[in-house]
Amino acid sequence: MAAAAAFSTPSTFNLSSATQNPNFPSLPALSSSFKLAPSIANSPIHPFKSLKLNRSTRFVSAAASSPSAATSSASAATTFHGLCYVVGDNIDTDQIIPAEYLTLVPSNPDEYEKLGSYALIGLPASYQTRFVEPGETKTKYSIVIGGDNFGCGSSREHAPVALGAAGVAAVVAESYARIFFRNSVATGEVYPLESEGRLCEECTTGDVVTIELRESDCKLINHTSGKEYKLKPIGDAGPVIEAGGIFAYARKAGMIPSRDA
Amino acid sequence: MASSAVTPSTSFLVDKKDVGFSALCTQHSFPCSAQVSKKMVSKKIVSVMAPQQSERKPSTTGAVKTGMTMTEKILARASERAQLIPGDNVWVNVDILMTHDVCGPGSIGIFKKEFGKNAKVWDREKIVIIPDHYIFTTDERANRNVDILRDFCTEQNIKYFYDIKDLGNFKIFESDKLTLQANPDYKGVCHVALAQEGHCRPGEVLLGTDSHTCTAGAFGQFATGIGNTDAGFVLGTGKLLLKVPPTLRFVMDGEMPDYLLAKDLILQIIGEISVAGATYKAMEFVGSTVESLTDKTSVPYEPVYSDGQARYLSEYRFDISKLEPLVAKPHSPDNRALARECKDVKIDRVYIGSCTGGKTEDFMAAAKVFLASGKKVKVPTFLVPATQKVWMDIYSLPVPGSVGKLVRRYLRKLVVIHLRAPVAVLVCVSTTNRNFPGRMGHKEGQIYLASPYTAAASALTGFVTDPREFLQ
C-alpha cells in the first residue's frame, strides 16, 4: 500500500512491495531497491508496516489476500481495491488538512498517524459522510475520487501524507495541482491517477471499485454500478514512481550515492 | 506600474527597498517571472517587448535553434544545457532553498533519514530558514518546531536563520523608539523577508517549501514551491528534477489608474484563466519594472530576458486603463466580480496583511483611504505587517500625498505573523491569497479577496466597497 511508506520516504516505500504488499508494480526495476533493505531493517517503521497489512487484509477481496498477485509476471498489474470516497472540484489543501494541524511533523511516526486522523476534515458540512470517523485514525475508503484541480493551494506535503497515513492508496482525479501531484510522487504516499472525464459524477461514496494499472491500459472498475472507466497513463511521473520516489530514482540514475555507500 | 503599488505619481515616497515585490506574481503554486530592468519607474505604462540579447556566445549560436522564454533560459543555465523546451525533465542547480517552521522540520527529518544523521547540507550559504507561520504562540508543538530549526542551523552552521527566541515579546520596539529590542534576528513573513534581505536575484533558481514562493518571480528569477521530500533532496544535493514549464504571457497595456493596485490586476487574470489555468506553466508579465537591487545584495547577478522569437503557449492582453476594482467572491480566487457590484454585501471583518497584502505599500494604500475619509472604520480591521521592516516603515513614513501625516496615526495594533489567525467570521474582506472554505478558520466563513484600497474602503462602510468612493 502506498501508505506503507510511513515516513514518507520513498526508499522505505520499496521495502513493502512485492513481498508483503502486492499493490505495487512488480517490475524488474524494483529489484535494485531491495539493496536498501538491510540498512532499513532496523528502522522503527516496521511496526507501522505490519499495521498496514492488518488493515488491508480486512478487505476480503483485497489483492493483499492473494499473494500470487505479488509475483512478477510479464503482464504485471498494479491493483488497488476498496471503497471509494467522492469529492468535487478544487479540493484545496486546507480542506485536505487544515492549517491548524500543520504543527504535526510528518517524519515523526506518532504525528504521522495523527495527521491521518485529520485527513479531509476540512471538507464543508455539505459532505455528510465523514472521511475518517471521529475517534478513528484510519479511513475505510482507500480510494478518493475527485474532480478538477485536486490538491490545489499550499505546498504542504502534509496533504498527501495525511491521505496516505489515513489509508488512501490512490487518488483518481480529473486533474491535479502541480505541487500536490509532485509531493504524491516524491513521497509515494498516494498514487495520483488521472481519469478521462468526470468520475466524480459517475461514482458515489461507498461504491466498491478496483483500479488496474497495466502498461497497455489503465482502468477503474466500479463494481457497484457495473461500469468501467479508462484512466490516463501515469506519464512523466512513471519512472519516478516505478523507482520508488525521488530519492530512489536519483540513486538509480546515479545522481546520489546509494545508502550503503 | 506594478513596482509602485499605490500610485505612479512622482510625489509618492518610494522606499526603494520595498519597490518591486508588489508585482503581479501572487498566483499560487505557479512559477512566474517578470521582466527586470534598471529603468526608473515610469508614470505611463506601456507594453514593451523583451529586449533582444545583443551578444551571444559563439558556443551557443549553433546550438540555439529556437528562441527561449526567460523561464526556459533560466532553467537551461541552471541545468547547464544550451537549449531546453517545455516538457524536458532536467536536474537543476538550486541557488536558494527557503524553508520555514511548518515544513522545515519535516524536510530536515527526510534529509537526515536519506543522507544520514551526520550528513552535511550542500551549501550553508544557500539555505535560508525563516520561522514565520506559528510564532508568538503558547502551542508547544509550534515552539518545538522552531527549536528543531534552531538545532539544525547550529549543527549545520546555516548562515541565514532568522530566529525567534523571546516568544513573550512580539514588540519590536517601544512606542516611538525605533530600536530593536527582543528578537533582533526575526524578520517575519518568509516571502517578503527573502526579498528584503536580498535573497531574490534575477536569473537565479529559488525553491521554497511554500506555495507562494513564486512571489519571488517578481525579481526575474525562477521561483516555485516544493514539498518536504523535494526539499530534503535539495538540502543534500543542491539539485532537483524539474519539468520545464511552457510560458503564458501577460501583456499589460495602458496607464494604471490611481484606484487600482497589483491585486486588482491579478484578480483580473485569475478570473480570466481560473485557479487551474496556469498549472504547470510559467506566467511571464511584460511591462513591469523593478528598481535596481544594488542596495540589497552584493552577490553578482545577471538578468535574463526572453528572446524575441521565444514561443509562448498563449498570450493575454489587458488594457489596464479600463479595469475597475475587483474582488474574488467566496469560495475561490477565480470567482471574480466588480467591487461595486458587491456593495450590498454586509461584512464583519477586514484583514489587511499576509505575504500578499502585508507589504509597506499595502499599508500606505490603506492609510491613504483612511486619510481621505477622515472617519473611523465600522468593523474590526486587522492590520498585519509581513515583516519587522514593514512595521518600522509604517511607524516612520508619511501617508503618500500628504505632509506630516504619519501612517501610524491611522493604523494601530500591528502584529507580525504569516498565517491569518483562525477567526469564526461570517463575512470578511481580505488582502490574502486564497478564499477556499475554511481558509480563515471557519468552514462557512465568506471571504472576499481584494486590494488594500478596496479592503480599507470596505472597513469604512461596513460593506464591500469600491475604493473610488473615497479616492475620487
TrEMBL record, chain A:
Family: Belongs to the LeuD family. LeuD type 2 subfamily.
A Pfam cross-reference name: Aconitase_C
Keywords from the UniProt entry: Lyase
Lyase among keywords: yes
Superkingdom as given in the UniProt entry: Eukaryota
Transmembrane residue ranges: none
Name of the molecule in the record: Aconitase A/isopropylmalate dehydratase small subunit swivel domain-containing protein
InterPro entries linked to this entry: Aconitase/3IPM_dehydase_swvl, AconitaseA/IPMdHydase_ssu_swvl, LeuD, LeuD_type2/HacB/DmdB
Signal peptide: none
Keyword Lyase: yes
Residues of the Aconitase A/isopropylmalate dehydratase small subunit swivel domain: 141-188
Family annotation (NCBIfam families): LEUD_arch (TIGR02087)
Automatic annotation (TrEMBL), chain B:
Boundaries of every Aconitase/3-isopropylmalate dehydratase large subunit alpha/beta/alpha domain copy: 89-294, 340-391, 427-462
Pfam families: Aconitase
InterPro entries named in the record: Acnase/IPM_dHydase_lsu_aba_1/3 (IPR015931), Acoase/IPM_deHydtase_lsu_aba (IPR001030), Aconitase_4Fe-4S_dom (IPR036008), IPM_dehydratase_rel_enz (IPR050067)
Gene3D superfamilies (UniProt xref): Aconitase, domain 3
Keyword entries, A-Z: Iron, Iron-sulfur, Lyase, Metal-binding
Protein name stated in the entry: Aconitase/3-isopropylmalate dehydratase large subunit alpha/beta/alpha domain-containing protein
Species annotation: Rehmannia glutinosa (Chinese foxglove)
